[in-house]
Write a structure and sequence with these properties.
It is a single chain. The chain is α+β, with helices and mostly antiparallel strands and about 80 residues long. It has one domain. It is built from 2 helices and 4 strands; from the N terminus they run E-E-E-H-E-H. It has a 4-stranded mixed β-sheet with strand order 1-2-4-3. Helix 1 links the parallel strand 3 and strand 4.
């Protein structure tokens, strides 16, 4: 199994700051990239696991955090944050 490096990174978009979850193969090779969009709930463990699975297949994977660190546990919360 490939060794994966995963961490939160700072992102800038339209002058605003946010974070994203970055998962990538831990080597010096070039790899194709994928932007994985979070589900309704946010950047929760399931989405991080999917990003790491894609990285294990050779993709640099970024998940932008549209909820700024919040994870919804109720549909009403996710609806308000969307």
């Amino acid at each position: 199994m490939a060794v994966i490096r995963a961490r939160m990174v700072d992102l800038k978009a339209n002058g605003e700051g946010t974070q994203g979850f970055l998962a990538q193969p831990d080597d010096e090779n070039k790899h194709p990239g994928v932007v994985l969009i979070q589900e309704y709930w946010g950047v929760e463990p399931h989405i991080k696991d999917l990003a790491q699975k894609l990285a294990a297949e050779g993709f640099v994977t970024l998940v932008p955090d549209h909820y700024h660190g919040k994870i919804a546990t109720e549909p009403d919360d996710a609806g308000r944050w969307s």
